[in-house]
């Protein structure tokens, strides 16, 4: 028996479907003319418009680089934080509709890597835009933008002999999709919940604005700065910009794990609680001040979200709905879309 509330919710879900479908139909109808328009506005022009110069992958920096949702913007609304989707559109729809019972005024935030690897990347971007979701920039979102331009330049004859790479799905992105991806910030702060969202991780003790943007969407491990200095030349520390005696940082990001590394989320001690993705091999991470939501859906794992209850009023100075009060929900992947490179936990 459906309760009246459930009927109400299912009506909302039903009502929202034709919209999603028409968006998908639009995807299917995308023809070359829209790409011609997109390519006309060349990457150079976009770069010149971006005041902050280039990001770590050569793409124009978004404005703002670090975004914020004000207490007023989230007051009285649930916040649904979604792990790495990687084009798993069908699982995303199941997660939002069935597990989250998403309603129009819920604030949906993706932790990045919405696209690539999985089967329906353009559909995921279209859905995210359609529901007015927020997201931070994942390494795959950023590199897919680069792939888009590589293909677009090739297509328009501007890009020399560079053939498009294997990400053929980028050809289905509309100009609006591309614009949306360009706007993805490297972090999203939500002061009412003492919450910070990044795709990968943060180095403790370094102000957000001084964090290395490339590390924000790629880091997994940290090493004691002193241990690293002992091992590597001072050149390396200088080049990475971390660990000099003057900045007082105790930790440095490193590319792979060894005896002296720690998962960054284990070491992170705030002040904000960080929700992140990017680490399917570790799976769900529930730390005191960090929550990792990448549960490897594209590798046949699960797609996970955390639902935060609404904060009444503006939250004041003491958040009444910290991440720890959130509810975890997830759906099992419908299939294994890609083989994992390591063993998933
Ligand atoms: Mn990633």
UniProtKB/TrEMBL annotation:
GO terms for MF: endopolyphosphatase activity; phosphatase activity
Domain of life of the source: Eukaryota
GO CC annotations, alphabetized: cytoplasm
GO biological process: polyphosphate catabolic process
Region (Disordered): 230-255
Residues in Calcineurin-like phosphoesterase domain copies: 78-279
InterPro entries: Ap4A_hydrolase (IPR050126), Calcineurin-like_PHP (IPR004843), Metallo-depent_PP-like (IPR029052)
Protein name: Calcineurin-like phosphoesterase domain-containing protein
The species this protein was found in: Klebsormidium nitens
């Amino acid at each position: 028996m459906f309760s009246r509330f459930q009927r109400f919710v299912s009506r909302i879900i039903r009502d929202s479907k034709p919209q999603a479908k028409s968006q998908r139909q639009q995807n299917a109808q995308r023809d070359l003319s829209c790409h011609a328009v997109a390519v006309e506005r060349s990457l150079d022009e976009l770069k010149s418009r971006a005041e902050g110069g280039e990001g770590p992958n050569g793409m124009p920096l978004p404005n703002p680089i670090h975004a914020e949702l004000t207490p007023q913007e989230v007051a009285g609304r649930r916040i649904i934080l979604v792990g790495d989707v990687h084009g798993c559109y069908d699982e995303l729809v199941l997660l939002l509709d069935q597990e989250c019972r998403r309603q129009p005024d819920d604030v949906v935030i993706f932790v990045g890597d919405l696209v690539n690897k999985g089967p329906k990347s353009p559909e995921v971007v279209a859905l995210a835009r359609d529901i007015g979701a927020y997201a931070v920039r994942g390494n795959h979102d950023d590199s897919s933008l680069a792939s888009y331009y590589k293909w677009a330049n090739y297509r328009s004859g501007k890009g020399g002999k560079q053939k498009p790479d294997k990400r053929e799905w980028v050809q289905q992105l509309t100009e609006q999709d591309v614009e949306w991806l360009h706007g993805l910030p490297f972090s999203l702060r939500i002061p009412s919940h003492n919450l910070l969202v990044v795709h990968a991780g943060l180095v403790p003790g370094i102000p957000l604005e001084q964090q290395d943007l490339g590390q924000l969407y790629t880091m997994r491990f940290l090493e004691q700065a002193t241990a690293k200095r002992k091992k590597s030349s001072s050149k390396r520390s200088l080049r990475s910009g971390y660990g000099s005696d003057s900045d007082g940082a105790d930790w440095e990001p490193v590319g792979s794990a060894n005896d002296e590394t720690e998962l960054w989320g284990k070491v992170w001690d705030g002040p904000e609680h960080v929700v992140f993705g990017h680490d399917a091999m570790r799976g769900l991470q529930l730390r005191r001040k960090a929550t990792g939501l990448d549960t490897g859906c594209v590798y046949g794992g699960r797609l996970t979200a955390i639902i935060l209850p609404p904060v009444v009023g503006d939250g004041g100075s003491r958040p009444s709905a910290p991440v720890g009060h959130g509810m975890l929900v997830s759906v099992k992947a419908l299939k294994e879309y890609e083989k994992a490179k390591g063993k998933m936990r």
